[in-house]
Description:
By secondary structure, the protein is an alpha/beta fold. It has 9 helices and 10 strands. It has helices at 2-22, 39-48, 61-74, 109-117, 143-158, 165-174, 196-213, 219-222, 224-238, and strands spanning 29-33, 53-58, 79-83, 94-100, 120-132, 137-139, 181-185, 188-190, 241-243, 246-253. β2 (53-58), α3 and β3 (79-83) form a beta-alpha-beta unit. It starts with a helix and ends with a strand. Residues 34-36, 39-40, 57-60, 63, 85-86, 100-102, 105 line the site of S-adenosylmethionine.
Amino acid sequence: MVRLQKQAEFYAEFTRTVLLKAGLVPGMRVLDVGCGVGDVSMEAARIVGPSGAVVGVDQSEAALVTAAERVLHAGLTQASFSRGDLASDGHGQFDAVIGRFILLHLNDPADSLRSLVKRVRSGGCVAFIEMDLTSAEACPQLDIFDKAVGWIREVYIREGVEIDMGSRLFSCFASLGMKPTLEAFQRIEGGAEAHVYEYLAETVRSLMPRMIALGVASEGDIDVGQLASRTKHAAQIGGQCFFYPRMVGAWARTP
Ligand SMILES: C[S@@+](CC[C@H](N)C(=O)[O-])C[C@H]1O[C@@H](n2cnc3c(N)ncnc32)[C@H](O)[C@@H]1O
């Protein structure tokens, strides 16, 4: 949970920037697909204000319960949530469709984008943010970091996730005849106070059951209890800084 909170903090500013540049303004009706616990919905709700509305859709009931609690707590009553597959119709037409870290999970991102775009009025906004997992690196190179990131990538690859969805956004939009504007953001940290050691270890911990089940690594190899401290120690000797995965935002207007 700490990892997810950190992730939300790291990416909030870039997310807001993309939504604003994409053209979200007060009063709009926005659909946030694969909204999870509502971080993107909440950013959108702050922009559209009380005269607008945000509908977050997700297949996970547990995530939506958390999302609903969070918007209530934040007084963002213009945001509401609905359980379902993002492909299912409903809730009428929107001024904008948005999503973050969702297209990578879909079998055919371009096809899903095509059906989502149809739910937006002509001249409305389409904005997505995805990451490029292969851009995560230590500089200078660091074996323990590369190994852990390698396990993470391998789990996603074996599960059919598009690990460089950020870079694929352009072609995804282009396949619908849309030319998106693109912008990237990459967080970089170094030094003893950096969050990266815990963030890496927590990410590995959360994927560990799948890593073991898929035969990517054994519990002994991973040694997750020592991963943060060993990476930190190695970086204190080697003087590394760490590049988190690059995030790419892409946005366009509907024809
Ligand atoms: C990595 S999370 C991203 C959550 C949120 N967009 C964010 O950026 O914090 C992906 C979310 O997409 C949801 N999801 C995946 N496939 C979906 C589908 N076909 N329909 C609806 N939700 C889906 C998952 O339940 C999960 O909550």
